[in-house]
Amino acid sequence: MKTVSIYSGPEAGDGQKYEALLKEHGYKLTPRRRAIIRLLGQGTCATPERIWRRLKPGFGRLGLPTVYRNLEEFRKAGVAARVAGPEERFYYGLCRARRPDQHHHHIVCEKCRRVSEVSGCRLEGLAASVKKETGFQVTEHRLELVGLCRKCRTRTGKSKPNTRSSREGK
Questions:
Q1: Which of 36, 82, 136, 156 lies at 20 to 30 Å from 7 by C-alpha?
Q2: Selecting from 1.20.1440.20, 3.40.50.970, 1.10.10.10, 3.10.20.30, what CATH number does the domain 14-156 have?
């Protein structure tokens, strides 16, 4: 598992890689979509509201719903990663997995906000078991694990993770 940060800067050719992914998924490369890719390619990880505020001056008519819709299309095409941040708000950044169009999950360090992609999926067996037991057909799932990366765990001296659910104690 390679650790990469959605805060890290772009690699050469990133813009073309992400534009090609959008084309493969049938999306047109509009000036607004290119601007969002350029902004995220600067290593920015941001909320849709922040992206909208940064891009609005360059586009006379750019609505917040347009930014949300494009970011969700980017996510579905494997161009962007969506991770939960502080205050349970979603943040988007370019997905830097080797094959972002293939199903994978993210692990997020709660301290430094580094995001790693975990390739493969170990939940297919669970989905099959759920279907067998309940008749429920799972069509999609999301998994994001939050904790402390090795570097932050070493810095804080915290050897055991806090396993309490984020919903507990609220």
A1: 156
A2: 1.10.10.10
